[in-house]
Write a structure and sequence with these properties.
Layout: E1 2-7, E2 10-13, E3 18-26, E4 33-39, E5 46-51, E6 58-60, E7 68-73, E8 78-83, E9 92-99, E10 115-116, E11 120-125
Parallel strand pairs: 2-11
Antiparallel strand pairs: 1-3, 3-8, 4-5, 4-9, 5-6, 7-8, 9-10, 9-11
């Protein structure tokens, strides 16, 4: 089992920045691919960014590419999402997730993630 706890959400004005953190506990962190997803009210959960385990390859959705950066510190069992140039449409609950099959590839599909955090709210005001 892997437990994931997100932090760092909050209220920010458009154009501002936030950094989300996701602390993992459990088995070997570097064996897991990690991802960030978000879900806005009335919308489906969508992939935001992912990063593989050992090879730290990142991948982003088109909607955040160039503005968000995913990174991980395997020594600290933590994955981060640096969000810059935030827009009101980025408002959502952000979830981190861990995949058993993501040690060397980036996993995009939500159904391939095995563990999820509780989510953290990000609100961007205009």
């Amino acid at each position: 089992q892997v437990q994931l706890v997100e932090s760092g959400g909050g209220l920010v004005q458009a154009g501002g920045s936030l950094r989300l953190s996701c602390a993992a506990s459990g088995r070997t962190f570097s064996a897991y691919g990690m991802g960030w997803f978000r879900q806005a009210p009335g919308k489906e959960r969508e992939f935001v960014a992912g990063i593989s385990g050992d090879l730290v390859i990142p991948y982003y959705s088109d909607s955040v590419k160039g503005r968000f950066t995913i990174s991980r510190d395997n020594a600290k069992n933590t994955v981060y999402l640096q969000m810059n140039s935030l827009k009101p449409k980025d408002t959502a609950v952000y979830f981190c997730a861990a995949s058993d099959t993501g040690s060397t590839i980036v996993v995009v599909a939500a159904e391939r993630y095995d563990y999820w955090g509780q989510g953290t709210q990000v609100t961007v005001s205009s």
